[in-house]
Structures are given as structure tokens and as C-alpha cells.
Amino acid sequence: MASRLPLEDVKILDFMWVMAGPAGTRMLADYGAVIVRIESPNRVDTARTLGPSQNNTPGPDASGLFSNCNAGKFGITLDLGNPNSRDVVFDLVRWADVVTESFSPKAMRAWGFDYESLRKVKPDIIMLSTCLMGQSGPLSRIAGFGNMAAAISGFHNLTGWPDRKPAGPFGAYTDYVAPRFSAMALLGALDHHRRTGEGQYIDQSQAESALHFLTPAILDYTVNGRIESRAGNSDPRFAPHGVYPARGDDQWVAVVCTSDAQWRALASAMKRDSLRDDPRYATAAARLERREVEGEVGALLAGLVAACDGWDAFLPESGGPRGLEPLCAVYGPGCRAPVPARSAGLFAGLEPDRQDFGHRHPGRPPGGPGQERQAPGQSRRSNPGGGRSRGRHQPGHRFRLPSPAGLAPQPQPGGPPGG
What we know:
The chain is of the alpha/beta class and about 425 residues long. The protein has helices at about 20-30, 65-70, 85-95, 105-110, 115-120, 145-155, 175-195, 205-210, 215-225, 260-270, 275, 285-290, 290-305, and strands at about 10-15, 35-40, 75, 100, 125-130, 200-205, 240-245, 250-255, 345-350, 360, 390. The strands form 3 sheets. The chain has a 7-stranded parallel sheet with strand order 6-5-4-1-2-3-11, with helices on both faces.
């Protein structure tokens, strides 16, 4: 008999959309939570329009991003602005232990689905609202995506070159940070409910959550009065640490020495035994004190990398020295990754509920090679479809909701939910 997952008895009604919200509940689905996701029949979820796309062909069921954020969930389309939807939503609330939403503060209140309204339907309901700047305060009405929150929080001012305007981190940065806090907050609320029987309301500001990832810079200013500034590709712990153009169009190699052994191997690769044996560069602390190492070594690396086709030149089988550890190829036409995502345990095969996205879905959080058995923290089913395969509620239609036990509907006193 398969072992039970820790969240198999948890039922979640998910109003989330795009990424910052759905990625948080996806983690809970991986650990067994039964999640019914509501989407609008009138406005497609933005995540369904974002790549990468299956076979490089965009479509409502082809987005890898949407699939990654919503694997393991059930889905239904429901027009929340239609008064006939209220009974359906309240039925789902009575079924659920948790309600989650990621709209701007006015949306759920305008529909009559705010926390106070849902408490009247189910007094012990747990509800999480996650949006850019939280539900209250002078910035709460700012609606947007994680790139805006990253800029407001301060990430942009710390990222880029010192003599240029802020570049900002890649992508909607806080969208990748906030879901971790969403999942942990919900686990805490579920534990509190288990011990006390009480529900609660969680107001999560995605920008405020992401501030935890600026802790070193904030503490350095608070304690030492230092204001961190942009430093290009330099790093406060490792040297050398840079990105260099390789042969060809838009080909790049990132080089970083995270240990003194790697530094010695790199010096050998550049045929600079004098650098390898120089005590002024023997340790990371010494190299960091002599920032000219970046200029001196950078010039040598630039010449070495420019003459090669990427990281291949650093591999022992290509004549490079042992002791270097190529991890990945930086983006460029035709680049290859030395550590394939599958062997790193990032994907797992699933039998699809539909035929549009094949048998390959993001199946588990990053893990080590050889993890082929199905384990906790892995998706059991694909994401809800965006077309005919997705449930659509019609007035007067009665449906049965999934239950935790084997994801099979079970009779309940007074009939099944919605029926």
C-alpha cells in the first residue's frame, strides 16, 4: 500500500492566477492537498500565454509555466461576476479547509467573497490573500507583477553595473520568492487549526515577503551604515567571478571559483603557474582584498574563452585541467547543459489527463540523480486544461467535488457538495 502523503486530508479552493499565487499552492498539491482551481471563462490566465510552449506553439494548454505552477490541481471555470455563481462558490467554501486568492484588494470584496463574507459560510475557514503590496496601506492599490515589486523593494537598485542605471534581477523576481512564504504561512495556519479549531486570515504582501532576501544589505546598513551598491558580476565572497564572451554570436561562459582548489585549477588552465603559486592570491580572502585579480585574471580569461566554443574547452576530455567543475552553459545559440535536467531529478513522467501536453510534466522539486521512485513532494497528475477538458459550471448543473481519500468523490451527510 502506498504511504499516505502529509497533506492528503487538506482541501483548498484556489482563486490564484499567473504565478506568485499558484506556485505556492502547487507545493501543497505535491504533498497531497486536494486543490480545486477556479478560472474565469471570460479572461484567460496570463500564465497560459507565457512560454516556454509545447512544441514552440503557444496555446491555452501549451504553457510550460502554467503547467509547472498548477500540476496536481483540479480545475473549473466560473464567472464570478455572475450572481448565479455565488451558490457554487459558497458550496466550494463549505467543502474547503483553505481559500486562497491573489487578486488586487478590491476584487474579492467586490464579488462578496472577502474573508468576512466567507466566515459567515464557514466560520473556521482559513483564507490567504497574496498581492503585490498587501491589503492595506498607501501602496495597497498598486496592482502589478513581480518585476514591479522587485523594483519597489530595492532589488533593482542593487543589480547592474555601477556606472549604469539599475538593471534589476531577471524576470518577475518576487514571484519566485513569495510562493515559499505563502506555503509556509498556510502550513502554520493549518497546524493552528488542527490544535485549536480556529480559522484565520493571512494578508501577504509579496514585496514584504521578498525583503527577507535583502537581509544582508538591510543589516549592513542598519548596523554598519553601509549602503550596498551595484557591482556588476563581482561577488562579495568569490573571486574571480565573471562572465566572458566565447567564440560565436552571443555565446558566453560564466566563471567562478568557489574554492582555492578551483582557483589553482583555473590558473593552470590559463597556463599561469605564477598566479597559481602566488601567496597573494592563494585564498579567497586574499583574492577579495586584491580586486585587481578581477582585472588581471579577467583579461586572461577573456582571451582564453574567446578562442573556444564555450565551457567545452575547460573539460578534461577537451584538454582542460582536472579540478574545474562545469555546471551549466550560459544562454546562447546552440548552447548545451552539461548537467541535464532529467538526471538532476527535476522532471518526472506522468500519465496525462489530456493528450495536448504529452507525458512530461515538472514532477518534483529539485533533487539528486537516481530519484526514480515516486516520493513525497512530487506531482501525481497534470495541470487543469484550458479547453473542453476543464469543468464548466452551468446554471442548474449539479457536480461532485473531489475528496481527499484517493481523489474519489464520497457521499456526505445530506448529499455530496453541490448536489
